[in-house]
Every structure is written in C-alpha cells, then in structure tokens.
Amino acid sequence: MGQGIVGHSYIFHNGIKYLVTKTTNHTISTTGAPCSVCQKFDNNGNLEKERYYDNDGHAELDVDYTNHGNSVLHPKVPHEHTWDWSDPKNPKRSPYDD
C-alpha cells in the first residue's frame, strides 16, 4: 500500500451508519467527517487503528489493534481509548480504556 487514502466503505456501529475511510498515513486527524471512521493500515495491509468520529466530527473513540510495542501498558489487543473534548483546543486521548 502507498501512503494516503486508499478507499471508502460503510459500516454500522451501534445502529449508526458510518462512512469508513481507509488510510496508510502515519497520523490520523482528531477531526473528520461527522459519523465516520478512519481505518489506519500499516504498509503490509494490517489494520492498526480505527478512529470513530461523533456527530460533530470530533474523535470520540480509538480502537487499537496493536499494543503500541508496550504489552505492559496495553496487555489487551484490541483495546480502546476515548477522547475528552472538554478543552476543545487541546483534546486528550485516554491512556487506556478496558
């Protein structure tokens, strides 16, 4: 896979239809299309992360399919991280949500 956007599809999550964008970009934006998901793949085509965006296009949930090279902090794969937008200029991703 090359760098960049590699395709689109749709999934249903909790009864909501999400537009899915697939990418191999190293970073994923904290904002996106409302009710969408960005799936990040490594250069070998393995799914590394899904980032879900809420109705306002803010990142609300990351599902990580790796342990980030740290099995002590992330023993469970996949695992989730939620986003806190209480300070819109500085959103924070949780360290780990079981």
Describe this structure in words.
The protein has 98 residues and is mostly beta strands. It has no helices and seven strands. The protein has one domain. The chain has strands at 5-13, 16-23, 36-41, 47-53, 59-64, 79-84, 92-93. A seven-stranded mixed beta sheet has the order 1-2-3-4-5-6-7, with no helix packed on it. It starts with a strand and ends in a 5-residue tail after the last strand.
Which descriptors would you attach to this protein?
0% helix, 98 residues, mainly beta, 45% strand, 7 strands, seven-stranded mixed sheet
Proportion of beta-strand residues: 35-45%
- Classification by helices and strands: mainly beta
Radius of gyration (CA) equals 13 Å
Q: Tell me about the largest β-sheet.
A: 7 strands, mixed
| Total helical elements | 0
The share of residues in helices is under 10%
Q: Within the largest sheet, what's the order of strands? A: 1-2-3-4-5-6-7
Shape: globular
In short:
With 98 residues, the chain is mostly beta strands.
Please specify the SSE layout and strand pairing.
Layout: E1 5-13, E2 16-23, E3 36-41, E4 47-53, E5 59-64, E6 79-84, E7 92-93
Parallel strand pairs: 2-3
Antiparallel strand pairs: 1-2, 3-4, 4-5, 5-6, 6-7
